[in-house]
Amino acid sequence: MDNSASPGDPDSLDFGTRVGMIFVVQAAAMSALAVSALLAYITYSAATIHRNASRRWSTDTHIHYYFLNLMVCDLMQAIGGLLNIKWISEARVYPSPTCTVQGLFKQVGDVGVALSTMAIALYTLQVLVFHFNSSPKFALVVLAVIWVITALLVAIPNAIQHGLYNPTGQWCWINERRSEQIGLEYLWMWIAAFLHIVVYVFLALVLKRVIIIDGHRLRWPRGGRERQRSFLSSTNYDPEPRRDEGIIAFQLLFYPAVYIIVVLPISAARFSSFNGNYVPFPVTAVADTLFALDGLLNVALYSLTRPKLIPRRPARDRTVILSPVTPGTQLARIYRTPILAPDLSWDPKAGRASSDYVWQGPLGSPDQRY
User: Which regions span the lipid bilayer (predicted)?
Assistant: First the structure.
């Protein structure tokens, strides 16, 4: 059967539209390549390299599990974007098995990315602010919840109606019903964006001591002297930790910034469309191109700010583990720019997590505990 576009076909794609879709495909290809390369490297490191090798990867913390899940969902999201190649080549979008697969991969990838980033944000808050951790195996329970929610969001609508995924303009996605598009996908993306802003901005304020954690209470500093005292030092003012905290607080803001840059444009375009406004396709193409870069940006963001997630040479990485602030404890100074890696270890003998903070710098001495 010939599915090529014919003159006057309402589902046909003109030349300008296909050019815009090519940019989306290129962005999706970059994300797919980056995520696939990283997953292949992690798989190779975990499966073939011995435990004491110079480069290795393990699942010692919750973050490792959530990060792997994030990469898998990013890959599914990118594959959904790559399937636009079919519509570009045929200059037409039409119901087909490819259309169904594209809609499915887009929904599962988008929801999975949102839930995985929420899990990472909440775990970071739990560890750094509330000094509480659970066994890394508990992360498997969280991942099970993530995939159960995702499966229900896919299975229930498909069981109720036939043909949930249909052409929605330039590609295939959830059909044109606004309530389904919001409830089955965009709602979760918006919740994740809101949570990113709240959690990471709050963590930055805690590190800058704009907000004080006093036991189980939150309060404002009682005076300038208390605010000047370093979060990393409980007895004497030390300018090095203060400078380090400023850098870390700044790095924490990267997470909501990147997620908002990716999600806000496409959300704004869709929301405007939901309200009956005409959205020019170039606007949609730019927004969806940014959204398709999500995998590439996540690989870059987490590789730079949380290098412990990537297989590495321990001898060349500097890790300084800082004990939580307690009266009479002076913590070690960090002489190189640290990078946040809140990967607390689980102590099976004590039945609880060791409440240490892990900070990583680019180069230096082997791991040290204080």
Answer: 20-44, 65-85, 111-131, 138-160, 187-207, 252-271, 283-304
